[in-house]
Amino acid sequence: MDIIQVITKELNVEKWQVEAAVKLIDEGCTIPFISRYRKEATGSLNDEQLRTLHERLLYLRNLEDKKNQVLGSIEEQGKLTPELKKQILAAQTLVVVEDLYRPYRPKRRTRAIIAKEKGLEPLANIIMLQMTQKPLEEEAGAFVSSEKGVESVSDAINGAKDIIAEHISDEADYRIYIRKTTQQKGSITSVAKNPEEASVYEMYYDFEEPIKKLAGHRVLALNRGEKEKILTVKINAPEEEILKWLERQVITKQNPVTTSVLKEVVEDSYKRLIAPAIEREIRSDLTENAEDGAIHVFGKNLEQLLMQPPIVGKVVLGWDPAFRTGCKLAVVDPTGKVLDTVVIYPTAPTSEAKIKAAKETLKKLIRKYNISLISLGNGTASRESEQVIVELLKEISEKVQYVITNEAGASVYSASKLATEEFPNFDVGQRSAASIARRLQDPLAELVKIDPQSIGVGQYQHDMNQKKLGEALSGVVEDCVNKVGVDLNTASASLLEYISGISKAIAKNIVAYREENGRFESRRQLLKVAKLGPKAFEQCAGFARITGGKNPLDATSVHPESYEAAEKLLEKLGYKPEDIAGGKLSGISRQIKDYKKLAEELGVGEITLRDIVKELEKPARDPRDEMPKPVLRTDVLDMKDLKEGMVLKGTVRNVIDFGAFVDIGVHQDGLVHISEMTERYIKHPLEAVSVGDVVDVRVIGVDMKKKRISLSMKGIK
Questions:
Q1: pLDDT tens digits, one per residue of 254-282
Q2: Is 27 a residue whose pLDDT tops 60?
Q3: Which end is more exposed in the chain, N or C (fewer Cβ atoms within 10 Å of the end residue's Cβ)?
């Protein structure tokens, strides 16, 4: 198989682009580095295309290894025919390779193997040839032998039937047909083990849907219901059609002696050997596709969340709400340093005196530290805390705003080893409050400290292949971190480790070097960091920023390998490197008439030159600035306050296959079903909304018992 050719066709790009990307990947280059600094080589393949290419490259190389292993095993057995070799080499998937290998795979002792040991294979061949004129009992009589354990004629016939059944089951072409037919014409059904029992799976208590139409989120829901022993799930194949087709393949002669026996064998082979295996394969296939879809959506949601714009230059009060144990507060300065922490008790069980004392504490903090923003976590007691904040803001003259911040994963972070290292003297609540404040100041820098699975913007994430999910989400985080760039002098080790080419160990070494030698003055200093060699420097240098360093280019995303070209360009246009920081280079793109000619003069590619110019015009621009700013203000505080027809503002917290969950300011997020999103038809909710979007919604249903809120985005003026 020509792997390059296959990927070229799948990605619908040129062959040279794929060849270049594969070469760079094999040389140890990371996806963000290739996407940003090797555009000439790959013809500007973006990070999404490169990740798909990398994934397929690994799969197809694994497929080739499997083929070689299978060919070697069959050859060892002396059973490799030119025809079989050709079939294996032509196979496009691992499933087909496994099908072809099945007859030659070392088997555990099956009924057919035992029958062969008893010397019954010749009898099986007589039946398969369908040419005998003798009664079958007479043919079988010759194989009766107490010595071999064949006590009777019926023992001999049954043993021969077992051999034929396994032979049919091992035939790759039969399996391929049956699998395809079941996928095309079969259905999946589920029933409740206890129909009287109430559960979240009630819509699946008597459920049937064609396999080819089954949505990914339904597959994951059925799997979970089955795992929790609430549902019984099975696949219904078009059994009659499959059996008739199998009979036509196996019964080639109308012989009254063998036909009825072969009909029995075909049925036994299908029901006992083929159908259960095909069911497992289809279920596994459905699950894998559903997981891939869910991981894709999770990745998109995570990207939106990580790329939310930072709120810079403000002293923020982080508020971790709670009832009995009190609300934990942390005051954080604009650089993320914790200035103060305190506990207040304004929520139930409380008293007027405690509420008054809490407000007094808040007023003192606001005045003392000049707080201009409160970041309130959206967990338990969030709405009650919000009420206190709203009352407080009416009582003070200072201009203070508040934002409700999604605190998913904050508790995971506050109990982690990393949080203990960061805040050794704080308890879990204080750490959580500091994290909630920092999430507002720089969502990306804070959220990278949390395992992506714990951030809560996916569906069924705990039921998935954790390794696959982890890899995909790490890729998303890596792309986001590298898109934004990282300040070498302020970044934590947990943020640095996502930079292209930097491992966990090197990230720690960068922080240790910084603590020992003071701030970085130049990107070149990175080469003095332990274990950071020339290759790692090449990969990371463009994404690591230094503000106020020796070379103004170190504050931009221009790669050190292009410094010479950038300096020549500035000289040509009559500028100095110092002009970069002063923002004096706005509009230089208009001074360049012929990019191609200039690129040749400077010794760089045209695409690279355009990137350099773009960067010099807006040095260290933050791609997050284009994202919607967080905002949420509401007077609705409880689910029972909701009435049908109410129009509210809300923040999209999670997007899933069938809709989006929106935080409207009550304890429970409401669901906007995909059918309630737009007037036009959309295939996926991501076409209409993203995590972090602020949307207008109308309440269309409130189910207090099930704690469900139904919302609509349609027809709101």
A1: 999 999 999 999 999 999 999 999 999 99
A2: yes
A3: C
Handedness of CA 435, 438, 440, 445 (dihedral sign): negative
- CATH superfamily name and code, 513-626: Tex RuvX-like domain-like (1.10.150.310)
pLDDT at 633 over 70: no
pLDDT digits (tens, 9 = 90+) for 446-471: 888 888 878 777 777 777 888 888 88
- Domain 3-88, what architecture? Orthogonal Bundle (1.10)
Q: Where are the domains of the chain?
A: 3-88, 316-441, 513-626, 639-712
| Each residue's pLDDT tens digit, 198-239 | 888 999 999 999 999 999 999 999 999 999 999 999 999 999
Q: Which pair of structure tokens corresponds to residue 299?
A: 């990745």
Eight-class DSSP state of 458: S
Q: Sign of the C-alpha dihedral, residues 487, 488, 489, 494?
A: positive
**Residue with the larger pLDDT of the pair 378 and 564:** 564
What's 639-712's CATH class? mainly beta
Task: Classify domain 316-441 at the CATH class level.
Answer: alpha beta
Residue 512, C-beta contacts closer than 8 angstroms, at least 6 positions apart: 530
Q: Using DSSP bridges, classify how beta strands 231-236 and 486-487 pair: parallel, antiparallel or unpaired.
A: unpaired
Phi, psi of 466, rounded to the nearest 5 degrees: -65, -35
